C-alpha cells in the first residue's frame, strides 16, 4: 500500500528540550551538563530551526493506548499534535476502526498490531512501543509498508531486575502465602522450607539488559550467578556462563527467564525442563507468557518438583485494569490460582514511576523526531538514518524521504528526479528488503515539490514518500 495520504509534511524541525528523568526520587530530574550552558557559551552559532509547511502539526493524529505515561503525552501534545489517549488496549475490531484515521499509534505490550490491523492503517507512518518488547507488532509487515517502529530498549530494565530480586526473597520465605493467610485471619508461623538467599545459585536465562542487571544485584545479595544465553556475553562480577540450558537448570536453586518472545523461546520451559531442575527449586518468569508451558508448571508445583514460582506474564493477558483473570482467558487460570507459593503479578515488571516516565520521554521524543524530521535513529524495523536539521538559513530547501524496495537502480532513478535541484546532502541505508533514503535539496519552490512527488510516486520501487519543507 503506498498512499498519497501517508505523505505527511510537518511544520517544525524543532529540537526537544525535555530532560530524561532517571531519578531515584519521584520529583528529581537528571539534566545533561550541557543543558545548563547557553549555546553562545559553547561557542556555537545559533541557527533557528526552520518552520516546515504546508501541513500544521495539528494535522497529525495520534492514538495512545494502554495508559502511556503523562511524560509521553506532554511531549506529543507540546508539538500541537491531536492526541487521543486511552487507558486500556482495544479489541481488534475497535482497534481497526480507530487505526484507520491516525498517523501515529503508541502502545505497550498488550496491543497486537498484526498484519490484519496494519493493513487497515492507511495513514499510519510510525508506531511507538512504550516498552522494551516489540513482539506484539508484525515488524516485517510494518517495514514492508514503510511504517517505522520505535521502542525503549532499556528504560525499564532496572525495574524488572528489582522486582525479580524481591520475588526471589518472597518465594524463599513463602511470604505471599503467609501474607494471604494473615489477611484472612490465620496466624501461621513456620520456618520449614524457608531459606536465606545468601549462598544460593541464581540461574539467569537470557543475559541481556535485564539479565545482566539482575546478575549484579543478585551477587550483591550473596548469591552465586550462572547464566545461559545463545550469545556469548561478557560475565559481570563473578557470574559464569554455562554452555547449555540443561546445565543451568541442573545447577540453579532459582531459575529466572529474560529472553524475548521468539519461535525458539516458545515453551522453552516445559515438562522435560522441569525434570532437569533441582527438586525444591523455584521458577520466575517476567519475560513473555509464551516462554513457559503453564500446565507443565502446574504439574511441577503439584508434584513438589518446584517449591514455588513467580509469574508476571501470561500467554493471554486481560485488556485493562479490572478485567478478570479466569479460565475464559487461559484454560488453566483457576488451577494456577489455587497453587501454594505462586506469586502472580499483572505484568508490572516495568511498571514504576521512574521507568514509565523515562519511556514516555524516550519514545515520545523518537516519535517527534521521526514525524518532524524523518530521522530513524533507534527504529527497530527500518535502517537507522539521520541528517542534520534544516534551518532558517536554508529557506528554499526541502527534505525528501523515500522509503523503497531494496532493489538495484533506485538511486539512479531517484537522483534523476531530483537532478534539477542541488542535492545538499543525502543518505541512504537498507535493512533486508527495505531501504530508506533522505535527501535535502535546495532551490526548490513549493510548486515544484508536487512535481517531484508525482514523479517519485510512480517509481516501481516506491513504498512511501514524505516531504518536509
Ligand atoms: N515483565 C515486564 O514488564 C517486562 C518484560 N520484558 C521482557 O523481557 C525480555 C528481555 O528483555 P531485555 O533483557 O531487555 O532483552 P535483551 O534483548 O537485552 O536480552 C535478551 C537476551 O536473551 C538472549 N536470548 C535470545 N534467545 C535466546 C534463547 N533461545 N536462549 C537463551 N538466550 C536467548 C539474547 O541473546 C539476549 O542476550 C524482553 O524481550 C521482554 O519480552 C521487558 C521489560 C519489562
Ligand atoms: O509496561 C508494559 O506494558 C510492558 C512492559 C514490557 O513487557 C516490556 O517493556 O517489554
UniProtKB/TrEMBL annotation:
Residue ranges of every copy of the D-isomer specific 2-hydroxyacid dehydrogenase catalytic domain listed in the record: 62-381
Domain D-isomer specific 2-hydroxyacid dehydrogenase NAD-binding: 167-349
GO molecular function: 2-oxoglutarate reductase activity; NAD binding; phosphoglycerate dehydrogenase activity
Keyword Oxidoreductase: yes
Xref: InterPro entries: ACT-like_dom_sf, D-2-hydroxyacid_DH, D-isomer_2_OHA_DH_cat_dom, D-isomer_DH_CS, D-isomer_DH_CS1, D-isomer_DH_NAD-bd, NAD(P)-bd_dom_sf
Gene3D superfamilies according to UniProt: 3.30.70.260, NAD(P)-binding Rossmann-like Domain (3.40.50.720)
Protein keywords: Amino-acid biosynthesis, NAD, Oxidoreductase, Phosphoprotein, Serine biosynthesis
Enzyme class: oxidoreductase
CDD domains according to UniProt: PGDH_3
Pathway listed: Amino-acid biosynthesis; L-serine biosynthesis; L-serine from 3-phospho-D-glycerate: step 1/3
PROSITE patterns with a match to the protein in the record: D_2_HYDROXYACID_DH_1, D_2_HYDROXYACID_DH_2, D_2_HYDROXYACID_DH_3
Keyword Amino-acid biosynthesis: yes
EC number, as in UniProt: 1.1.1.399, 1.1.1.95
Domain of life: Eukaryota
One Gene Ontology biological process: L-serine biosynthetic process
Catalytic activity, as annotated: (R)-2-hydroxyglutarate + NAD(+) = 2-oxoglutarate + NADH + H(+); (2R)-3-phosphoglycerate + NAD(+) = 3-phosphooxypyruvate + NADH + H(+)
Family: Belongs to the D-isomer specific 2-hydroxyacid dehydrogenase family.
Record function comment: Catalyzes the reversible oxidation of 3-phospho-D-glycerate to 3-phosphonooxypyruvate, the first step of the phosphorylated L-serine biosynthesis pathway. Also catalyzes the reversible oxidation of 2-hydroxyglutarate to 2-oxoglutarate.
NCBIfam families documented for this protein: PRK11790.1
Name this protein carries in UniProt: 2-oxoglutarate reductase
Species whose genome carries this gene: Venustampulla echinocandica
Amino acid at each position: 500500500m503506498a498512499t498519497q495520504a501517508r505523505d505527511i509534511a510537518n511544520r517544525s524541525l524543532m529540537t526537544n528540550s525535555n530532560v530524561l528523568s532517571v531519578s531515584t526520587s519521584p520529583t528529581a530530574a537528571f539534566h545533561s551538563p550541557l543543558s545548563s550552558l547557553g549555546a553562545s557559551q559553547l561557542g556555537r552559532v545559533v541557527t533557528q530551526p526552520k518552520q516546515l509547511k504546508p501541513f500544521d502539526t495539528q494535522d497529525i493524529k495520534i492514538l495512545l493506548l494502554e495508559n502511556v505515561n503523562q511524560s509521553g503525552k506532554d511531549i506529543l501534545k507540546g508539538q500541537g499534535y491531536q492526541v487521543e489517549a486511552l487507558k486500556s488496549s482495544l479489541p481488534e475490531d475497535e482497534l481497526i476502526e480507530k487505526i484507520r484515521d491516525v498517523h501515529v499509534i503508541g502502545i505497550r505490550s498488550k496491543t497486537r498490531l498484526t498484519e490484519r490491523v496494519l493493513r487497515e492503517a492507511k495513514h499510519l507512518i510510525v508506531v511507538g512501543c512504550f516498552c522494551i518488547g516489540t513482539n506484539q507488532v508484525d515488524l516485517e509487515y510494518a517495514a514492508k509498508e514503510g511504517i517505522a517502529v520505535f521502542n525503549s530498549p532499556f528504560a525499564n530494565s532496572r525495574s524488572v531486575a528489582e522486582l525479580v530480586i524481591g520475588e526471589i526473597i518472597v518465594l524463599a520465605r513463602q511470604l505471599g502465602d503467609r501474607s494471604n493467610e494473615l489477611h484472612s485471619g490465620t496466624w501461621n508461623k513456620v520456618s520449614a522450607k524457608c531459606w536465606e538467599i545468601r549462598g544460593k545459585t541464581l540461574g539467569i536465562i537470557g543475559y541481556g539488559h535485564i539479565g545482566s542487571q539482575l546478575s549484579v544485584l543478585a551477587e550483591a545479595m550473596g548469591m552465586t550467578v550462572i547464566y545461559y544465553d545463545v550469545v556469548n556475553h561478557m560475565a559481570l562480577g563473578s557470574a559464569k556462563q554455562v554452555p547449555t540450558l540443561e546445565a543451568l537448570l541442573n545447577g540453579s536453586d532459582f531459575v529466572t527467564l529474560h529472553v524475548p518472545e521468539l519461535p525458539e523461546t516458545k515453551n522453552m520451559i516445559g515438562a522435560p525442563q522441569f525434570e532437569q531442575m533441582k527438586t525444591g527449586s523455584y521458577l520466575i518468569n517476567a519475560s513473555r507468557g509464551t516462554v513457559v508451558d503453564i500446565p507443565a508448571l502446574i504439574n511441577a508445583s503439584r508434584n513438589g518438583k518446584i517449591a514455588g514460582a513467580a509469574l508476571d506474564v501470561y500467554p493471554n493477558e486481560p485488556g485493562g485494569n479490572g478485567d478478570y483473570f479466569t479460565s475464559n482467558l487461559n484454560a488453566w487460570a483457576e488451577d494456577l490460582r489455587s497453587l501454594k507459593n505462586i506469586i502472580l503479578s499483572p505484568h508490572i515488571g516495568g511498571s514504576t514511576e521512574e521507568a514509565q516516565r523515562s519511556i514516555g520521554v524516550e519514545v515520545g521524543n523518537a516519535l517527534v523526531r521521526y514525524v518532524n524530521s524523518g530521522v530513524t535513529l533507534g527504529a527497530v524495523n527500518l535502517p537507522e538514518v539521520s541528517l542534520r536539521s534544516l534551518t532558517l538559513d536554508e529557506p528554499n530547501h526541502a527534505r525528501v524521504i523515500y522509503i523503497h524496495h531494496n532493489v538495484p537502480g533506485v538511486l539512479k532513478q531517484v537522483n534523476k528526479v531530483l537532478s534539477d535541484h542541488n542535492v545538499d546532502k543525502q543518505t541512504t541505508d537498507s535493512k533486508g528488503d527495505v531501504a530508506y533514503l533522505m535527501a535535502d535539496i535546495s532551490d526548490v519552490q513549493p510548486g515544484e515539490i508536487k512535481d517531484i512527488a508525482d514523479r517519485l510516486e510512480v517509481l516501481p520501487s516506491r513504498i512511501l514518500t514524505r516531504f518536509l519543507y
